């Protein structure tokens, strides 16, 4: 969710009044805003998408709730020490959280373990361990529409008789200390993005949020029915008309068997009726096609933790497979492929299959991704029910990602086309009539330059590096993952470095390359990639031959509040995943909205961005999905590219020989070995096209930045207070011309 203060002021229309009032008190609002901690309760795009949806739904006046876990420790804080990522706990609640309100009156029990008793009256789940779910509510204000929705996050609490009610062994102190075991459920966010780690605590978290939320929804539903003449038999008939539950990936998939358990075991509905209501209630969003990210829970773990749910999943699967067998008799392989249970080795539950079978709608998050979902990953299911599969391309909230982070640009746009675009970005097409308006183009360039100067000052303060604000800001920020190909960017940096050294007198368009993002703590290759980027930066930034032509910065602890600073200052946005791997991406949209140009592959939402803006207005390069498929068929041979491309060979040889790690020459042997022998994401195959495309980028930047085309006026400087020593004034020239 990031920070809340400024977003709340903007959506309530109070920002100017608050700025003024705080100023009158002798305080600086921006300084105050910097004190607030980010709420970092998710990993990457999936968590931020949910946050953007909450803002959007409130602004559209939809009666919607966001449900999740109130982690005591969110995504780790990233420190870079000696070029390596080091994780620190994110103790974001240390000073309290003024935006949340605990709601103990709505506390609910959640059950784990135990066993199932079958009687004439039906199944009973007994001898369970109980954990209490305590809700905390955070307001979600819509933009200037007097709507405030709720985000409800659950915190785990041990009941007061925890470990004391059963066979009291007399160790009272130990029993109280053991309360931590129950309360650990909401202690910490698992920091994996696009990777499944089948840990018991993680499954507990997934069931915890689901069980508490469903009880809450049903309590609210029943309250709306209070005093109605419906019999218990018909009360839930209208449930899907009043309740829609969107599953954000498979992480809340246990909601499907849980709702069935409530309907069948507790409310005593017949199975078929319960199943019909359940399917009409749920819809599922798929967020990735990477096989290592798909959740596949071991059956024995589910049996231990949630025995009744396993039985219900088996029953769902049996009926599902009976149906398929009736349509495709004797096709045993189809049954195996479509089963919710994967046999062979340890039996596992395929949670994506459970979501598809238990939902009435399944969507991907960009056109190309939804196609891949339909024709490749879940092909068998799409053949069965083609009408179930849809596309809903991701989006971003223009409040946070334009008004809040780039007020200068937002105001310029409003002057030309009015303020309605803030609720409806399709109105930005009205700007078409100003493309040849020199003054407007100049003002847009001036805002970008001011944003760059401000960010350069931030970098100077935080990283003690001098940045030339008139250089091209080339930015690659997102989670560190092989499929996102930060390595390819790194190879381009090394190539530029080698070109400058080969011919120092040749005209070179100056660049500041900014790469940032967190690596999952257990992801060795991602951590090596961070170390390599920092090692390359060390060499490049300290080579006198290079001077200020090329600077490389690894942006520490990338998070929402830092994105709000870097995105408005960006000239070039890097969206270079291997075609077919990035489901959508949303950073791509944030950069575009803030006037950066995009260099990218035909992947995810890049495809639709190119369609919308015209492919000639993006720097598109590299293999398309079809080319990747073809290359897989032929067999990808990295060596071939290495032999054929001298600049690639030089860069790889430098990494291999220890040019960037002289004290430990074989430090990056794992990285090089991966690139040659098991690079699933084919960095070498796109290297040449990428470098050529980057040359076009530089040419265009040169033209756009040359005097006459892009006249940049100096901005007002913030004069430091008398108690702070002033640096030499000539260092502070905003357009970066002074030495």
UniProtKB/TrEMBL annotation:
Protein EC: 2.4.1.1
Enzyme class: transferase
Record bears the keyword Ligase: no
Chain residue ranges for the region called Disordered: 708-739
Composition bias type Basic and acidic residues, residue spans: 724-733
Obligatory cofactor(s): pyridoxal 5'-phosphate
Keywords tagged on the record: Allosteric enzyme, Carbohydrate metabolism, Glycogen metabolism, Glycosyltransferase, Phosphoprotein, Pyridoxal phosphate, Transferase
InterPro entries reported in the protein's UniProt record: Glycg_phsphrylas, Glyco_trans_35, Pyridoxal_P_attach_site
GO molecular function: glycogen phosphorylase activity; pyridoxal phosphate binding
Domain of life: Eukaryota
Complexes and interactors: Homodimer; enzymatically active. Interacts with PPP1R3B; recruits the phosphatase PP1 which dephosphorylates and inactivates PYGL/glycogen phosphorylase.
Family to which the UniProt record says this protein belongs: Belongs to the glycogen phosphorylase family.
Functional note: Allosteric enzyme that catalyzes the rate-limiting step in glycogen catabolism, the phosphorolytic cleavage of glycogen to produce glucose-1-phosphate, and plays a central role in maintaining cellular and organismal glucose homeostasis.
PANTHER family membership: GLYCOGEN PHOSPHORYLASE, GLYCOGEN PHOSPHORYLASE, LIVER FORM
Descriptive protein name: Alpha-1,4 glucan phosphorylase
Taxonomic placement: Eukaryota, Metazoa, Chordata, Craniata, Vertebrata
């Amino acid at each position: 969710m990031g920070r809340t203060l400024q977003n709340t002021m903007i959506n309530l229309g109070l920002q100017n009044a608050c700025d003024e009032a705080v100023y009158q008190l002798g305080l600086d609002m921006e300084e105050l805003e910097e004190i607030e901690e980010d709420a970092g309760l998710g990993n990457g795009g999936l968590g931020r998408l949910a946050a953007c949806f909450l803002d959007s739904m409130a602004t559209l006046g939809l009666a919607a709730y966001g449900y999740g876990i109130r982690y005591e420790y969110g995504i780790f804080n990233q420190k870079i020490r000696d070029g390596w990522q080091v994780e620190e706990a994110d103790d974001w609640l240390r000073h309290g959280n003024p935006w949340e309100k605990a709601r103990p009156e709505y506390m609910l029990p959640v059950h784990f373990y135990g066993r199932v008793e079958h009687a004439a009256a039906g199944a009973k789940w007994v001898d369970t361990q109980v954990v209490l779910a305590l809700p905390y509510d955070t307001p979600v204000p819509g933009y200037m529409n007097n709507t405030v929705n709720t985000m409800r996050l659950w915190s785990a609490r041990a009941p007061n008789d925890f470990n004391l009610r059963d066979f009291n062994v007399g160790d009272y102190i130990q029993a109280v200390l053991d309360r931590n075991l129950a309360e650990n459920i909401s202690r910490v966010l698992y920091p994996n993005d696009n990777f499944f780690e089948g840990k018991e605590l993680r499954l507990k978290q997934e069931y915890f949020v689901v069980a508490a939320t469903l009880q809450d929804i049903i309590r609210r539903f029943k309250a709306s029915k209070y005093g109605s003449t419906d019999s218990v038999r018909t009360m839930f008939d209208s449930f899907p008309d009043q309740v829609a539950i969107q599953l954000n990936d498979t992480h809340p998939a246990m909601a499907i068997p849980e709702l069935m358990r409530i309907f069948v075991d507790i409310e005593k509905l017949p199975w078929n009726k319960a199943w019909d209501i359940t399917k009409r209630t749920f819809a599922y969003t798929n967020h990735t096609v990477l096989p290592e990210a798909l959740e596949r829970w071991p059956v024995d773990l589910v049996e231990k933790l949630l025995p009744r749910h396993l039985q219900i999943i088996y029953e769902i699967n049996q009926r599902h497979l009976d149906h398929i067998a009736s349509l495709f008799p004797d096709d045993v392989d189809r049954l195996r492929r479509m089963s919710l249970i994967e046999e062979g080795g340890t039996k596992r539950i395929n949670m994506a299959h459970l979501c598809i079978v238990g939902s009435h709608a399944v969507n991907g998050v960009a056109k190309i991704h939804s196609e891949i979902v339909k024709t490749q990953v879940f092909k068998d299911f799409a053949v069965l029910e083609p009408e179930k599969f849809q596309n809903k391309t991701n989006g971003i909230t223009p409040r946070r990602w334009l008004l809040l982070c780039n007020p200068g640009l937002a105001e310029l746009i409003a002057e030309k086309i009015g303020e309605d675009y803030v609720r409806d970005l399709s109105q930005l097409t009205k700007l078409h009539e100003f493309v040849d308006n020199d003054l407007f183009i100049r003002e847009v360039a001036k805002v970008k330059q001011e944003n760059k100067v401000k960010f350069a000052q931030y970098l100077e303060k935080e990283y003690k590096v001098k940045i030339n604000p008139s250089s091209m800001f080339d930015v690659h920020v997102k989670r560190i993952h092989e499929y996102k190909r930060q390595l390819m960017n790194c190879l381009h940096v090394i190539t530029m470095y080698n070109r400058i050294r080969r011919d120092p007198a040749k005209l070179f368009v100056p660049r500041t390359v900014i790469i940032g993002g967190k690596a999952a703590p257990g992801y060795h290759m991602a951590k090596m990639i961070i170390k390599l980027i920092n090692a390359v930066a060390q060499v490049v930034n300290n080579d006198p031959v290079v001077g200020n032509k090329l600077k490389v910065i690894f942006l520490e602890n990338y998070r929402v509040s830092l994105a709000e600073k870097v995105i408005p200052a960006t000239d070039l946005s890097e969206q270079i995943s291997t075609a077919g791997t990035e489901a959508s991406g949303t950073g791509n949209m944030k950069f575009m909205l803030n006037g950066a140009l995009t260099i990218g592959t035909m992947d995810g939402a890049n495809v639709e961005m190119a369609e919308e803006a015209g492919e000639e207005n993006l720097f598109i390069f590299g293999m398309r999905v079809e080319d990747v498929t073809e290359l897989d068929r032929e067999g990808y041979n990295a060596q071939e590219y290495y032999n054929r491309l001298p600049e690639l060979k030089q860069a790889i040889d430098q990494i291999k020989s220890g040019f960037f790690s002289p004290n430990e020459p074989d430090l990056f042997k794992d990285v090089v070995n991966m690139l040659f022998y098991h690079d699933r994401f084919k960095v070498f195959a796109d290297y040449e096209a990428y470098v050529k495309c980057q040359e076009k980028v530089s040419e265009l930047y040169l033209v756009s930045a040359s005097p006459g085309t892009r006249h940049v006026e100096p901005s007002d400087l913030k004069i430091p207070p008398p108690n702070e020593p002033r640096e030499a004034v000539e260092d502070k020239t905003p357009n970066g011309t002074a030495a």
